[in-house]
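Lecture notes, unit on protein representations.

Consider one protein chain, 344 amino acids long.
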Amino acid sequence: MNNLATDILDSLPDPVLLLDAGRIVTRANPAARAVLGDLAIGRDLSHSLRHPDALAAVDGVLSEGGYRGVEVALPVPTERAYDLQAVAAPGGEPGALVIMRDVTAVRQNERMRADFVSNVSHELRSPLATLIGFIETLRGPAADDPDARTRFLAIMDAEAARMSRLVDDLLSLARVESREHIQPETALELGPLLKDVAEALAARSDVPVALDIADGLPAVLGDRDELTQVFENLLDNAIKYGGDDVRLEAAAVARIPGIGLPGACIAVADAGPGIDGADLPRLTERFYRADKARSRSLGGTGLGLAIVKHIVNRHRGRLVASSALGQGSRFTVHLPSADSPPAP
């Protein structure tokens, strides 16, 4: 292989291997060595790629020429999916060229879409079944029973409201995801916004929210409606699950962890039952609930924290959840100040 061909091979982002007629790896670009290891060169492909379908595809090309393709999953160091394509070596030389295109993100997105449709169907099926059942009852056995009619209509109203909240949250999630790559450009003072949100929720729930908003809180680049939604959601969760001891704290920070920029740190804390550590990493997944029965009984859709996460991402901030069983929960939002350097 001449220098130009070598340079082209090494510059390719996908793993590429060149094999001789005996299936020995004679050349591997840096991307291939990163996946299969440096020891792959000079050895049979089976030493570094232990996948029967992939080896069968390569053997087919070595014996018959042409093209073979197969998808392979490599479990280490982290599971990745590759679309492996084997073709006869260029220039009529004996051997084969193997190209591995990483399709992990594609497969993950496909699974997420399938899971999303499945979850939405599941969440809608229960209230719909309830509504259909009560409608049939009201048309039949309970047609002339005013007490039953009043009771059933109240339940139907609650189930319809549950579906309405789910649809609203689905639309909100879709809206913020579509704009997540666009950072807001309007400077916004957080202090008045936080006070308004806390007072409104406290009035609706009769649960006081203790405020500790430090002076000198920096302005942030933000969408007022979206940030209102973030803190309404976090405070609403704290009030529902955390009892009467709910606190909202806000202060300026010189360096946001993981971002390194100055900004504001806003925390919503409660003294409720807390969350198991195993559940914390999954709280912002769509439809994930640490306490499924209680969440549904309180009217939760399982989308609130997913919406919060995407809004905070759009504002180039960080959301951090910390909790332990019996020790309450704390959700912290870090937002860069308006005069921070623009995020990439």
